[in-house]
Amino acid sequence: MPARKVAVVVGSLRKDAFTRRVAEAMKQLQPASLHLEIVEIRDLALYNQDIEESPPQPWVEFRNQVRASDAVIFVTPEYNRSIPGGLKNAIDVGSRPYGKSVWSGKPCGVVSASPGAIGAFGANHHLRQCLVFLDMPVLQQPEMYVGGVNKLVETGGKVANDETRELLTKFLQAFAGWVERTIRAG
Asked: Over the range 72-90, which residues count as b (16 or more CB within 10 Å of their CB) and which as e?
């Protein structure tokens, strides 16, 4: 069976974001049953229904990339105890126009990361609220909060220690199983 295509949506727009580092690390650790690809959100104009009749090219490309995926992993930092505006905008762009959401029914997982000790717990749970509305079955366990990420994952996704590598590997293996179970049940 070919690997499942997984769109990885990185919530931070910063070039060397900690969440991008985590996404790169997961790409390096992905099991053979998954093919992870980062889907960029950096160039998405703010969602505005007034321009939906002739949507900007970055919206079209983003929607097509997510639509072509079998599943999604969101990797989010925490801004003010919630998700960043760029990530929320990407969610909105993908959910429109009404009735044509690219998210609906896609199995997903949430990874949150922060230099702080609680690993962006607030953002993780705020994002889950959006995903329920979007009809995205979310992997419940293992939960994935990467606290102290600035010391655990280096630029380019190099993982600093075996414990973090094991944590990410365990998450990806559970996610691969979740994707298969969800797709078979659908």
From this structure: bbbbbbbbeebbbebbbeb
Residue type, 145: Y
DSSP string, the chain: -PPEEEEEEE---STT-HHHHHHHHHHHH--TTEEEEE---TTPPPP-GGGTTS--HHHHHHHHHHHT-SEEEEEE--BTTB--HHHHHHHHHHH-STT--SSTT--EEEEEEESSTTTTHHHHHHHHHHHHHTT-PBP-SS--EEETGGGTB-GGG-BSSHHHHHHHHHHHHHHHHHHHHHHHH-
Distance CA 110, CA 116 (A): 17
Please name every residue paired with 114 in a beta bridge, in sequence order, or none if there are none.
147
pLDDT tens for the chain, residues 1 to 186: 789 999 999 999 999 999 999 999 999 999 999 999 999 999 999 999 999 999 999 999 999 999 999 999 999 999 999 999 999 999 999 999 999 999 999 999 999 999 999 989 999 999 999 999 999 999 999 999 999 999 999 999 999 999 999 999 999 999 999 999 999 997
Q: Could you tell me the pTM of the whole model? A: 0.97
Which residue bears the tokens 């929607």?
63
Instruction: Tell me how far CA of residue 50 lies from CA of 47, 56, 103, 116, in angstroms.
Output: 9, 11, 21, 39
